Amino acid sequence: MYQLALTIKDYKEDIHLLEEVKKSNPTNTSWEVLCNEIVEKLLKKKINNEQKFSSWEIYRSIMNQIEPDECQKLCQNNELMDLISQMLQEKNKDVVYSKNIITLKEQGHSFLFSDKLALWKGDITKLGVDAIVNAANNQLLGCFVPHHLCIDNAIHTFAGPQLRRDCSIIMNKQGFEEPTGYAKVTRAYNLPSKYVIHTVGPIVESQLKESHCNLLRSSYINCLNIADDLHLESIAFSCISTGLFGFPQNVASMIAIETVINWLYENPFTSIKKIIFDVFSDNDLQIYTKNVIEFDKTCNENDIIIPPRINTSIMVTPTEIQQNELNRVIKFFKNATHIIIGAGAGLSVDAGLSFMDTKLFSEMGYPLFEYGINSLYQTMGFEDFKTENQKWGFFAVMADYMRYKEVNEHEFDTYKKLLDLLKKYNKNYFVKTTNVDGLFERSGYDMNKFFNPQGDFKYIQCSTPCSQDVYLFKPYMDKIFENINPLTFEVPDSCIPKCPRCGKEMTQNLRSDEFFVEKPHMVMAPLFTKYVEDAIKNGKVLFIEFGVGGNTPIHIRIPFESWTIQGENTMLVRINLDKSFLQSKVPHTKYSAFHTTGKQFVEWLWNAMK
């Protein structure tokens, strides 16, 4: 099986990420005396008075240069590790806590989310926050240069050797260097923060390029995603990629502020309450101070209306009005002879396969960060890959994630519970969906009662096309995964699929342009239409529409309304998070709308009818 960059779930057990760090008991001994004792133990000899005077520099030099294997051995010496912990905590007593850092709104700023952002000048290793962000290198093992002034060196020094040990465990398991724009997280050990999030920012060696800016945005996005996944409330960013990495400070500052604001807008239910931009120099402070004023002008909170949104991660009981509507639907469901399901993108989102999800995309698409792509939605129609080799590597990984990768049982719940209800009440059903992820098939639905006019990730086709044939992608994917470069997704020329008929380039079998091969999918069209027309003529029909938007209304939205109006014993149930899509021409007596997720709606049905 191919290896991709690790996510939290892949390494959290290896480094005991969620276990609380046990701090050493306070001591009355000064850190200098402790440091002398530690250095003697490390050097395995007594040190003279001159060495005692510089014992901290000696200790730091040893810690900077220690190799991961030796670091692992050192961490097994409990007595010495306890001394190191006591010394570092004694030396780093002057902690500044997040609650004591005022927000930019409290300083008089009025841009969007200024109440969650703060600017602070000082040593990031002294911040008492949930997580600090380390500007790391691609090896993710820290800086090996003694007394180097980079933030990576400082964080590893004051966290203690456990940090390098954990980073080494992660990187050994990953097997290749960390992608730029990606991020990992470890415990912070002897730092006053709980976690350290390590991200690799772009290196600007000469002229600043758009790809550098895109990668820097991804670093901020992925750090915030990790903090949100861990349900953290505060995070402090160092100045990623500036300094030795050569990124112009002013541009980096603008990208940092803009990206954080955009992320907060897209994640309204995040646990994060405070985001601190930590600067170390007066120059950086002046740059950030100047730039936040610009956001007061261009992104003022008084000029922006944020629409109300529903927290879809929380299951709730229906309101009285919803319950009354639900009772109507349940009654019709039980008496219906036919159930016709129409599923749009919203139902895939309920299963954790959202085209807008930056967290999902970061797992499968990190080589595309440099193109400014952070979600699957942004890949639609994208063709500007560096090479065809990289394009097919990405296509294979994406198809594997979206079509074959094992999905957690709870993510299948919505599909399976709906199917269980159909079976329990012995309902004749048919499914039409514009989704291409195969979740209905993977959940056990009858494929003889399934119509998908938009294609399927499991097929590829001739790009010309020279015929109406489609081909299973899986055999090609298996070959690609044997040879893929996990850092870039480049594959050898021999792995690029060619049309078996004409030898030309192939492409995904997804409806995106006039070259889409629809014939294999459209064979179900007349069967579906006949099924619906017969059902309307001879039975009692319930149409259930899940998460259908406005991109392709001709497939589900318009015909479902038309059929409901046309039939005498019909009812349309429409479930959507967007209220604008709940409007309908269907008379109220034949129509019911739910402003919620498909997952929540099925859960309500399940609880009432199981």
From TrEMBL:
Keywords: Metal-binding, NAD, Zinc. Residues 104-296 form the Macro domain. Zn(2+) binds at C462, C466, C499, C502. Residues 319-610 form the Deacetylase sirtuin-type domain. Signal peptide: none annotated. Pfam families: Macro. CDD domains: Macro_OAADPr_deacetylase. It comes from the Eukaryota. NCBIfam families: PRK04143.1 (NF003163). This is Protein-ADP-ribose hydrolase.
